[in-house]
Write the C-alpha cells for this entry.
Amino acid sequence: MIDDKIIEDLQKQIDELKAASQQQVEEIRVKMLGKKGEITRLFEEFRTVQADQKRLYGQKLNTLKNNMLSKLEALKASVENQEGPKGPAEDLTLPGDRMPLGARHPISIVREEILSIFKKFGYSVAEGPEIEDDWHVFSALNFPPEHPARDMQDTFFINNQTANNILLRTHTSSVQVRTMESQSLPIRVVCPGRVFRNEAISARAHCIFHQVEGLYIDKNVSFADLKQSILLFAQEMFGADTKIRMRPSYFPFTEPSAEVDVSCNICKGKGCSICKGTGWLEILGCGMVDPNVLIANGIDPEVYSGFAFGMGIERIAMLKWQVNDLRHYFENDVRFLREFETVI
Ligand code: DAH
C-alpha cells in the first residue's frame, strides 16, 4: 500500500538521518535502497497503485529516491571530512629528508695528514697528558730555572694545595720526555696534541692551539738526517717542488737549533701577500736534541744522538687554505666548517 502519509514519513526520516562513519552510511543505504529496503519496497508496491494515480505517485517515489541518494552523498562527504583523507597520512612517494652530513674539522684533517706522512717514514704516534708538571714541560727539556717561558705570562699554572708545579702544557715537547722515559731506543715518534698559553686571543694568537712534535733518537743521527726528513715532509705536505731553508735559532732543548721555512706555494717563491713578499713561509722549529736533554732522560749522548722538531697545526692549516684568522678554528661556525666538506 502506498499513500501520502507513508511517503511523508519516509521523507521526514531521510531529513533526520545522521551517520558517524562510512559503515553507518552503508547501513542506511541498505535499509532504504537495498533489496529489502523501505524505498525499494515502495517501488515494488507501485504495481498495486490505481492507474489514475500512477503518474502522481510515480513522481513522488522518484523524488523520494533522489532525495535519499543526495542525502547519502551528503552523509558520505561529511563522514569523510571527519575521518580525514583516505589512505596513509603521508605521501610515501615524496623524497626523504636528508640528514646534513657533518664535515671533519680542518685541524683534524691537517693533523691526520701530518701524522700519515710521518707514519710512512716509519714514525709511530705517541700522546701525553695536557695537565703536566714542570719536569716534563720545562726541567727535563733543559729550560734554565729563570727561562722566560716559565713566566706566568706564558703558562697557565694549576693551583693545587699539595703541589705547585702543575700546569697546562705549553708545548707537546713534553711528550718527548714521556717517550724517552717509557720507550726503549731507538725512538721515532710524532706527538700530536693540544697546548695552552696565557695569551690574549687575536687573529694571530690563541690561548689554545695544536702542535705535532717529532723525535728521532738512534746511533749516528745527524743534522743531515734532520734536514732531509723535513725536506721530504715539506714536499709531501705542500707539493713535490717545495724547497726549504733553515735559519739558525734557539731552543733550550736543541743544539744547534733552526727554524724552517718552505717556499711559498701560492706565489711559487716570487713574493705575495701571504709570504709578505719574501717567497718563504715559516712552518716549524727543530734541532739536534741537546745532550743535556738526553742525560736528563738517562740516555748516553756519547752513544746516541737525535733530532726533534715541532710545528703548529693551525699554522700549517692556515698556509694550506689561506685562513687569515686563527679564531675561525675555535668558533665552530658551520659556514666555515662546511668549506672543508669536499676536502675529506
Ligand atoms: N716546542 C717548541 C714550541 O712550542 C717547538 C719546537 C721547536 C719543538 C724546536 C722542537 C724543536 O722539538 O726541536 O715553540
Notes: The radius of gyration is 43 Å. The mean pLDDT is 91. The longest strand covers residues 208-218. The pocket of 3,4-dihydroxyphenylalanine is lined by residues 171, 173, 213, 251, 254, 285-287, 308-310 (CB under 6 Å).
